[in-house]
Design a protein that fits this description.
Blueprint lengths: L12 H10 L7 H7 L9 H8 L1 H16 L6 H13 L4 H18 L5 H16 L15 E6 L6 H14 L4 E5 L7 H12 L3 E2 L7 H14 L4 E5 L7 H18 L6 E7 L4 H13 L4 E5 L9 H8 L4 E5 L7 E3 L2 H9 L4
Length: 351
């Protein structure tokens, strides 16, 4: 689904009037999304969204790189040690930083490089190669001919529910029949938040009684989706990572219930990660990958941080593809991840 297929979102007047009262309990950013959508917006290209959202990361990395090269007049062991530290500070991950530094040592010997500037372009080229080394790396979302079931996991506060709401709008605007399932039944406000998103983007939301068994709510949602000919069913789940055993049991039960209705589902299991948490996002990805099989990452809040390099760490250390990316707070600031667009946005002006 391309961004130019989607019509601009217009918020109903009654929602705007009630906004101050209704969004207090919801995630930060919902009110600003509604207000901003009133103003006429010049439609951005996909690449412009990447360039805008990665500005802080690009500026921070560029400044560190420039300061680093200004500090060295020769290529020696201290040069490589400081470079590795710079890369780690840029949130590309310890493994990426170590591997890249070793490759640069080899390149320096091969080219007999004596001046740091001779290796500047090589650093950028090696970063790009991280995304080109594996032709089987799957960034595509696997939509089915009939019902596509997407399961969303992630800790509270990373923008998981907000991402689901924005995706519901995106797919709904593209002509798909979308339904949401509120399976985070124990967190205060979680069900109400998803229900509010459903109301805003005109998409049905399946809910259960307060503190209902999440699997029973999922079962109701699956049966309704099949009966009503839904194209895309998105399931919001709890994110209590501090109690891994209970969470694992809950997600396993949800998985069994899903397969009881659609044996090959869920077709996608997305982990929502907040880019601004840097290496902590990598830790969360490692923990969730132990709890449930993951098919992709939803990377949120990339526009508000200088820590976008975490994408490279996830790619290298976990081999889990980033499939969706949040560009900002507006209702249409979400899209399918594209590594070429990402790397251009990350390295613009540096190469």
């Amino acid at each position: 689904l391309e961004s130019d297929e989607l019509e601009q979102f217009q918020e109903p007047e009654e929602i705007l009037e009630e906004e101050n009262q209704e969004t207090v309990e919801f995630e930060e950013g919902l009110a600003s999304e509604v207000v901003e959508e009133e103003l006429p917006q010049v439609e951005e290209t996909v690449q412009e969204k990447y360039d805008r959202s990665l500005k802080k990361t690009r500026t921070g990395f560029g400044a560190r790189l420039n300061a680093f090269f200004a500090n060295f007049r020769s290529v020696d062991e201290e040069f490589f040690e400081e470079l590795e530290e710079l890369l780690i500070m840029s949130d590309v991950g310890v493994q990426v930083a170590s591997n890249l530094t070793e490759e640069l040592r080899y390149e320096a010997k091969l080219e007999n490089a004596k001046k740091p500037d001779a290796l500047r372009r090589v650093i950028i080229e090696k970063l790009v190669e991280l995304y080109e080394k594996d032709g089987n790396y799957d960034e595509q979302i696997h939509f089915q001919d009939g019902l596509t079931v997407m399961l969303f996991v992630g800790v509270n506060g990373v923008g998981k529910t907000t991402s689901i709401g924005k995706l519901a709008h995106r797919y709904n605007q593209a002509g798909k029949k979308v339904m949401l399932v509120a399976a985070d039944t124990f967190r205060a406000g979680a069900v109400a938040q998803l229900a509010e998103w459903g109301r805003r983007v005109d998409v049905p939301v399946v809910t259960g009684p307060e503190k209902a068994d999440p699997a029973s709510v999922v079962f109701d949602g699956m049966e309704r989706a099949v009966a009503e000919g839904i194209d895309i069913l998105m399931i919001d789940t709890a994110g209590r990572l501090q109690n891994k055993d209970n969470l694992m049991a809950e997600l396993e039960k949800i998985g069994r219930i899903i397969k009881r209705v659609v044996p090959e589902a869920p077709h996608e299991t997305f982990l929502a990660l907040d880019a601004s948490t840097g290496q902590n996002a990598l830790v969360q990805a490692k923990e969730f990958s132990k709890i449930t099989p993951l098919t992709g990452i939803v990377l949120t809040k990339i526009d508000g941080t200088a820590r976008g390099g975490v994408v490279l760490a996830i790619r290298e250390e976990l081999n889990i593809p980033v499939k969706l990316i949040g560009f900002g707070e507006k209702i249409d600031d979400i899209g399918e991840f594209n590594s070429e667009n990402f790397m251009k946005g990350l390295l613009e002006g540096l190469i």
